[in-house]
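Quick one:
INPUT:
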């Protein structure tokens, strides 16, 4: 349906000449629905929607790029100038894709181009992508078809075009074990990368604060709940509020937010270094090497900030008056238990990175491929809801796989606050939990953990979008 609307709206695209303004006039007149001689964001958004282009902010970006007199709309001269400049950039992209210089792009050329960007796609997947641009049914895309498909996309180079499927939505669910985002060389040379990291950090801080009561309940249930001491949602919240008041639901949130910045920075820098070690100079990183680099970067970041993880658990479980603050907590742990206490639970935490990051990446890639297989014929853009859905499902699956290790880690971190004289190992603690509470004892607290996923993802996305606008991030 979208393809038919696109072809109808851009019916003259196949015979356009870059120097001819008549074809631009036809398109301009169709977009200018109120016939005031200008195309504003609303009119352009409606036109893009008719062509199946749903990317958030696309209409605003086009108008902002071409609006020379800053009146919030495009007159015909501004519209024409924007399209001519955009076509020139698209032509360079087309030529870079057309490896054999025959004037057409085939599935093999798409596979090669994506492989260079570190994206492995099957022959069938490449054909699906090709089909989304192919008008005449030849399963090859010439310049006119390529131009028609991307003319009103703000993206103009290959890396921007395929960025729809970058795992770049910041879905902060409180478990920072996922593989870091990719940044292009252009982004690294500009100030885009640090702006995105800042936007992500702020989104994570707001998201964690909004879902802190559920996070505290999860930790509370992980440590205190058992067959003999059953704690459900209502009982858990009631116990915490009775003991410390309503504000006690946010205990441990301060340091949980504080550790976002160093963890993000260390993970990003370590990831870049591991990628360089695992790939030859000038080559794009392959998926399995990206997983290895991401896992090692996660391990490096976790090693550096792990004492903060222990402090977070202790502060989350503290009773009223037990600690004056995070520094008082750190001082008391150091004095009573020694430096080694700051790395309790480190081994299960480190092991948990592999299943979490691996399953998160594998499920995301599977969902992405499934979407492309069934829907790429209409549009290459999956849309916000699909991306949010894929990210949420993949993160949830990653959590399911690593949750028993996370529970053991939390119990080991909290051992001193439970007044247990002996310090069991990871394996003995696993055996004890299974013996006393059965297999499902390893999943104590998973209900509040799942309950916080959707609000956490929603808050992260909304705040991230606002931060991108505020920081002037273009994509």
């Amino acid at each position: 349906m979208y393809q038919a609307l696109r072809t109808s709206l851009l019916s003259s695209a196949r015979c356009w000449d870059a120097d001819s303004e008549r074809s631009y006039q036809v398109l301009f007149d169709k977009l200018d629905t109120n016939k005031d001689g200008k195309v504003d964001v609303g009119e352009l958004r409606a036109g893009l929607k008719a062509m199946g282009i749903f990317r958030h902010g696309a209409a605003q970006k086009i108008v902002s790029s071409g609006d020379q007199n800053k009146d919030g709309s495009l007159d015909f001269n501004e519209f024409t100038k924007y399209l001519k400049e955009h076509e020139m950039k698209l032509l360079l992209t087309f030529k870079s894709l057309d490896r054999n210089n025959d004037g057409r792009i085939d599935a093999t050329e798409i596979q090669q181009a994506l492989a260079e960007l570190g994206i492995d796609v099957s022959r069938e997947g490449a054909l699906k992508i090709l089909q989304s641009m192919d008008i005449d049914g030849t399963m090859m895309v010439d310049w006119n078809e390529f131009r028609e498909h991307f003319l009103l996309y703000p993206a103009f180079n290959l890396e921007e075009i395929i960025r729809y499927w970058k795992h770049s939505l910041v879905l902060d669910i409180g478990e920072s074990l996922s593989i870091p985002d990719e940044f292009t060389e252009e982004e690294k040379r500009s100030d885009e990368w640090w702006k995105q990291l800042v936007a992500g950090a702020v989104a994570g801080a707001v998201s964690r604060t909004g879902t802190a009561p559920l996070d505290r309940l999860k930790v509370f249930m992980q440590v205190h709940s058992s067959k003999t001491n059953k704690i459900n949602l209502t009982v858990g919240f009631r116990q915490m509020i009775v003991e410390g008041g309503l504000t006690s639901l946010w205990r441990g949130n301060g340091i949980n937010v504080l550790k976002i910045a160093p963890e993000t920075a260390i993970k990003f820098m370590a990831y870049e270094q591991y990628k360089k070690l695992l790939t030859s100079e000038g080559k794009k990183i392959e998926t399995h090497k990206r997983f290895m680099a991401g896992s090692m970067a996660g391990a490096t970041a976790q090693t550096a900030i792990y004492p903060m993880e222990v402090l977070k658990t202790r502060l989350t479980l503290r009773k009223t008056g037990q600690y004056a603050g995070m520094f008082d907590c750190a001082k008391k742990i150091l004095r009573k238990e020694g430096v080694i206490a700051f790395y309790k639970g480190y081994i299960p935490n480190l092991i948990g990175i592999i299943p979490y990051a691996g399953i998160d990446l594998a499920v995301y890639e599977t969902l992405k491929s499934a979407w492309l297989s069934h829907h790429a014929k209409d549009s290459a853009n999956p849309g916000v809801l699909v991306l949010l859905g894929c990210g949420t499902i993949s993160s949830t699956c990653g959590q399911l796989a690593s949750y028993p290790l996370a529970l053991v880690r939390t119990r080991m971190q909290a051992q001193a606050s439970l007044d247990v004289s002996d310090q069991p190992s990871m394996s003995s603690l696993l055996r004890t939990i299974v013996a006393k509470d059965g297999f499902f004892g390893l999943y104590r607290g998973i209900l509040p953990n799942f309950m916080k996923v959707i609000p956490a993802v929603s808050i992260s996305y909304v705040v991230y979008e606002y931060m991108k606008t505020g920081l002037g991030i273009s994509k």
